Task: structure prediction
Amino acid sequence: MGAAPSLEGRIFADVSNDPAGDVGSETCFEYHEEPDGVVWARYAGGTVRLGHLVGRRDGDGLDFRYSHVTTSGTTANGHCRSRIVVSDDGPLELHEEWEWESQPGSGTSLVREIAVVDG
Result:
């Protein structure tokens, strides 16, 4: 089986997250990917007012840093490693292991593709 398809234009929503995280069921991510493996996304929703992530893709693995501002006005940042998985029923999933860099804490999360935006 080959690598998962490009993340370009794919919208993901949170399915599950460790309680130590700020991302929740109302948070959506719009991903972009360059042919050379540079990946970035904008995310917002729930307690996250605005967030961005940037990093690299290697095969089906992602390694990126994230930063966001919450609806209460605090900022936070951290590091995440994700694995891209094609779910049994078709949509892509990102299985994530993350850790805060701006505060103590770490956890796991799962986000699932909900749409693809045409360029």
